[in-house]
C-alpha cells in the first residue's frame, strides 16, 4: 500500500516539477534573448555577447535536462536537479530589479519546495 502511494506521489509531484523545469527553461530563453538584445543596443560587441549567450544557453539546457532526468528515480538525478535549481535561483537574484526576473525566481522556489518534498523517494 505504501509503495503504491509513493508511486502516485512521485508521479504527480514529479510531473509538476518537470513542467516547472520546462516552463523555467522557456522563461530563461526569453530572458536570454532580452539580455542579448539589450547588450547589442548598449553597444556591446563580439566576445562579451558570445560569452553571455553561451552561459545563458547552458543555463537553459541544464534546466531542460534537470526536468528530463527527474523521470529516473536515482539519487544523482535528484542532486543534479537541486544543484541546477540552487544555481538558477542565484542567477535570478542578479536581475531582480527587472520585473522579468521575478517569475523565474518564484518558479525556482516552487521547484525547490516540491523537490524537497520528494527527497524521501529518491533517497530510499
Task: Describe this entry's structure for a reader.
The structure is a single chain. The protein has 124 residues and is an all-alpha fold. It has helices spanning 2-41, 47-69, 75-93, 102-117, 119-122.
Would you tell me the structural class of the helices and strands?
mainly alpha
Helical coverage, percent range: over 70%
Strand content: under 5%
- Unreliable parts: none
Shape: elongated
Terminal CA distance? 16 Å
Mean pLDDT: 86
* Count of alpha/pi helices: 5
Sheet with the most strands? none
Computed CA radius of gyration, to the nearest angstrom:
16 Å
Order of helices and strands: HHHHH
Tag the structure with descriptive keywords:
single chain; 124 residues; mainly alpha
In short:
With 124 residues, the chain is mostly helical. Helix content is 82%, strand content 0%.
Write the layout of secondary structure elements.
Blueprint: H1 2-41, H2 47-69, H3 75-93, H4 102-117, H5 119-122
Helix pairs in contact: 1-2, 1-4, 2-3, 3-4
